[in-house]
Specification:
Blueprint: H1 3-10, H2 15-20, H3 39-49, H4 51-58, H5 63-82, H6 87-124, H7 133-136
The structure holds zinc ion.
Residues 14, 16-17, 24, 28, 30-31 line the site of zinc ion.
Length: 149
């Protein structure tokens, strides 16, 4: 088998081209992400974005950016299929809550550490210990992201 015919044998019509009833060319931008045996993944993405919108979103991107964009589209559409009401927004909300809790815990630990250093300085003498955390790392305060509206 020559290389052209073996390539043709390996290249099956992807789920996106099959849906659009068009020939799936070797350079099809969807073939790597919506193979023929992953029809449900395509259907979820198409339901959320529509195949023509997906094409417009990724056709001008370089291959690396296109792969990231398609992975993001597929992830979001899978989450939306599993949770149509909450979707990714529910996941983002959970992560924001976890971030707020982690920042609060970090601030608490820093305050405890500074208090411990203060007590240790009083017992040992100020010259032998490191400066307080706030003085050594002025930008080290935990920041909170602005929650989604
Ligand atoms: Zn295709």
């Amino acid at each position: 088998m020559d290389s052209a015919s073996s390539r043709a044998a390996r290249h099956r019509t992807c789920a996106a081209c099959r849906f659009q009833r068009r020939k799936c060319k070797p350079n099809c931008i969807f073939a790597a992400f919506f193979p023929a045996d992953k029809k449900q993944i395509f259907e979820n993405a198409h339901r959320l974005y529509d195949v023509r919108n997906m094409e417009k979103m990724v056709e001008h991107l370089d291959p690396e950016q296109r792969a990231e964009a398609m992975k993001t589209i597929i992830y979001e559409s899978e989450v939306h299929a599993a949770d149509p009401i909450g979707g990714c927004r529910r996941i983002i909300g959970k992560l924001e809550t976890e971030l707020q809790l982690a920042c609060a815990e970090l601030d608490h630990v820093r305050r405890e550490l500074e208090a411990s250093r203060g007590r240790a300085q009083a017992m040992v003498g100020a010259e032998m210990l490191a400066p307080p955390i706030g003085a050594a790392e002025p930008e080290a305060r935990c920041f909170l992201l602005t929650p989604l509206p």
